[in-house]
Amino acid sequence: MVREGYDRIAHRYFFWNLNDVHNSPAETRFLPMVLHSLPVGARCIDLGCGNGLPYTQTLTKRFKVIAVDFSMTQLILARQQVPQAFLLQADITRLHLPAGCLDAAVALYSIIHIPRETHASLFRQIAIWLRSGGLFLVALLKEDLPEYIEDDWLGAPMFWSSHDPATSVDLIRNAGFEVLDCDIVPQIEDGEQVDFLWVLAKRL
């Protein structure tokens, strides 16, 4: 559902993505912590890169970026926006990378589309990919949401799932991370407030 949905709404999402959703103060607070804590040329993975705007594009200005998405249509758009990134179509829950190969992992608004029963194992896998001291930045929903399906989100069915904030933070800690900062940050989508849990963590 998620892959087919993002394929279907790719062009509509491109403009919605630019003009509406990405006005959160968390982006000026959390993302710069990653950008300025690691050296130029650091190795970073963007899990759920979408069309590459704005996050992948920002990351590629400083880092060597692997940009991963489930939707081929999104990746075709991303190729136009971030030609310097290495693009990879994959299900991030089934992705295999060498241990310690990355300096940073970013997952902004992507893990919310994965059943929450898999979040703990995905956090553990991300910890394996990161070197000791590597950074993990994630934006999750704040709701205790086993699953939610919207029949028409920007023109296609879409799936979301999340734990409550305390559980999400505990899962990240238990995966082998020290939480450096976390906060619930509101932002406006289609004229309505939506709250996201932002977490910045360091691999132990």
For the biggest sheet, the summary is: 7 strands, mixed
Arithmetic mean pLDDT: 94
Give the strand order of the largest sheet, numbering strands 1, 2, ... along the chain: 3-2-1-4-5-9-8
Which topology does CATH recognise?
Answer: Rossmann fold
Unreliable residue runs:
none
Classify the helix fraction into a percent range.
25-40%
By CATH, the superfamily comes out as: Vaccinia Virus protein VP39
Count of discrete alpha- or pi-helical segments spanning 4 or more residues: 8
Observed structural traits:
204 residues; alpha/beta; Rossmann fold; seven-stranded mixed sheet; two-stranded antiparallel ribbon; 33% helix; globular
What can you tell me about this protein's structure?
- The N and C termini lie far apart (35 Å).
- The model has no long low-confidence stretch (mean pLDDT 94).
- The chain has 8 helices and 9 strands.
- It has 204 residues and is α/β, with parallel strands linked by helices.
- It is globular.
- Helix 7 (119-129) packs parallel to helix 8 (165-174).
- Helix content is 33%, strand content 37%.
- The chain has a single domain (2-203), classed as Rossmann fold (3-Layer(aba) Sandwich).
- The strands form 2 sheets. The protein has a 7-stranded mixed sheet, with helices on both faces. Strands 6-7 form a two-stranded antiparallel ribbon.
- It has helices at residues 2-8, 10-21, 26-29, 31-37, 55-60, 72-81, 119-129, 165-174; strands at residues 43-47, 64-69, 86-89, 102-108, 130-141, 145-153, 156-162, 177-189, 192-203.
